[in-house]
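Reply to dn_fold:

You asked what the input looked like. This is it:
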Amino acid sequence: MKMRQIQFDGVGRLRQVEREIPPLKDSQVLVKVEACGLCTWERYIFQGTESMPFPFVGGHEIAATVVETGKAVPKDIVPGMPVSVAKWVRCNQCEPCRRGYDNHCLANDGPMDRDWSGPGGFADHLVCESYEVFPFSPDAPLHFAALAEPVACVTRGVGRLRITAGDTVVVVGAGFMGLLFLKLLKLRGCKVIVVQRSEARRARAAAMGADMVLSPEGWPERVLSETGGMGAAAAIYTAGGHEAVDQCLAAARVGGDVLLYAPTHEDHPKIDLDQIHFKELVLTGAIRHDKESFRQAVRLLGSGQVDFSDLSLSFGSMERLGEEMERADQDRDIHRILLRWEK
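and this is what came back:
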């Protein structure tokens, strides 16, 4: 049996290829990819601003159906089942895994037993380890399973904050990930202030439940005023460069948290470290998902506790991936293009 993949052969070069599906090991699951999110990461690799070994097969936001299982796969994973796939090696043996940081598993840096790199979701079929496969509720739209990966990343970020219901939290940036932070923070009972330059994105954040939306000019002073001079319990940076990070430090209350969810994309960015010292702030980061945050995200999406239907999702063609990447670059109002095979 063969699988189709969309392979990047180099910067700006892609093509459809066919490969034999390898025999399943006892611990593995063969899935049929039903929808795969087009993330900025794959677009950056195609454009050459991110680096990965070529040939490369992207696709890490995966909704799928189980086709076949190996002999040692847990009995609750059966053919025909809708699933979400967390394509990330977790060896459970290296030091980061043993310490609970399986999102930094060292096995991901080692050689792969195949002739291409990448997660492999830009395909019609995919072989996964059983621990990468999470059963998804049949009562929820299956394409929502593709959102589990970004929701899991945000879930892990929120989990690193020392916040409780009623706290004020600032989210800087109202792109796709910023809006996911908004939704999960509201679920926790927080008052959420969103900072965003674009008026259209501010309006969308307000419509999605933000308690206050602010433009970037002078926003820390507005937050201090709104909190009686105390500052926010936490501030989450998703975009804006080192100036926005400094503003997060200024807006945080004494003993508050500042989360760097995104890099600044700057060499040696300058920030005011004295604010961390004098206010006893906790400056931390978050990257990727771990197995627990992915489990939570799948439950969250499948249970309907949070409305994700107000996100701007658009279906696209896997066969025309190059055109879909151009559409994603041009139409910034689309939060995710979900790629499906036309035939």
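The mean pLDDT is 96.
Hope that clears it up.
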